[in-house]
Amino acid sequence: MDAKQIEEWIKQLYTQEEFRLSLVVVFISICLYTANLPMAVITTLIVASLPFFILQMLENRRDEPSDIITSSEIEPEPEIEPEIKEDEVDGISIGKDDNKKPITVAVKDLGHTFIIGMTGYGKTRLVYGMITEMLTAYDPEDLRICFSDAKEISFDIFSDSRHLFAPIARTQDETTELVNLLLIEMRRRLKLFGEQKGRLCDNLDKYMQITGKKLPRIVVFFDEVADSIERGSETERNLTTLAKVARATGIQLVLITQRPTKEGITHEVTSQCQTYLSTYMKNNTEYGTVAKIPKEVYSVMNTKATQGLFMMFSPKFVKKFTSIEKDYNGWGFIMANYITDEDIERIAKDNAIEGLVLPELAKQITWGGSEDDKFNAMDELEIRDGELSVNNMMSQFGMSRPTAKSWVKKYNEDN
């Protein structure tokens, strides 16, 4: 029993009839036992006043200053979340800013990325650095990569990587099939999201949080994208669809080119990019037409261009870059990490796996044979394109509309 409880007990004692009655009993008992009236009166007064003196002593002690702090007097300290520094983010290192501080970013925060630059200014070395960082920072179940390689040699060193999602596309036909394969994977993931009934599941992170299942992010590198995809082609339209929709499903594009204004790259695609990286360009219109680099920024680049120096914009670093130079509208300068040939080869070798099985690119779906053969061809077409329609039957097999209609009707009835 603590002092406060004793105090409350004594206060209640003075108000109870039993206490007053017990004093009368004490007085009568002493009188009968000793036959001494004065002693009975004194003893009764002492017993009656004892609780009062105890109460007074407690009040005096309470008024005295004390060095002892009770638990009720301790105010809980507010919980302070640990500050996460930008150079401690789990992700990949791209380079250093003007203050020599690392630019480190999680792959998902890059979104779609547009990299432009002249030959000899470090564009390829930047891309190699990004790839090797991804291979070392992420496990294959968390991240996959694939390539459209117009030069046919740029990414060949990664052809046996355990992180590959598909074989390297080295021709326009293979690039077309790669884009189709990515569309199928995008639709498959959207279907998985839609199966989470009663839950708001509209992106990869939410899907993994709701289901507890893992789906790897897929990063697709398109080297010299303007040479890989024809303007106005079906592949260009599919790439546009990927640019608009695929990011939510965890599929991210990295578009690389020397000439951002060249035919083959539409504004519909580049406008969907979240991150822009650009080296020095001889023609100022290359800066502004597609990448929308402010004149205040590229004017500085024109005076201090050097290999490995990039102008960069990314929503993740707007605040950081603005603190360095507020007139650059969220843009900043970074010096890309330099990775040696030996390190690239070592990382690629460590990441390689023998007997890697990947989906075949540029596989032609042919029409002919028995009715079962034709239905199998239609199955493959539906899997590849995510749907079976009259238009894609006409496009794939060169059919007339009435013939395609009759086969689609027959296929739907049979299934």
Explain briefly what this protein structure is.
With 415 residues, the chain is α/β, with parallel strands linked by helices. The chain contains 17 helices and 9 strands.
Give structural notes.
The chain is of the alpha/beta class and 415 residues long. It folds into 3 domains: 3-64, no CATH class; 86-351, 3-Layer(aba) Sandwich (Rossmann fold); 371-414. Helices cover 48% and strands 12% of the residues. It contains 17 helices and 9 strands. It has helices spanning 3-14, 17-34, 37-63, 107-110, 123-137, 172-194, 204-211, 225-228, 234-245, 267-270, 284-289, 295-304, 318-324, 341-351, 371-385, 390-397, 401-414, and strands at 92-96, 102-105, 113-116, 143-149, 217-223, 251-257, 275-278, 309-313, 332-336. A 9-stranded mixed sheet has the order 2-1-9-8-7-3-6-5-4. β1 and β2 (102-105) form a beta hairpin. The radius of gyration is 39 Å and the shape is extended. It starts with a helix and ends with a helix. Residues 79-89 have low confidence and may be disordered.
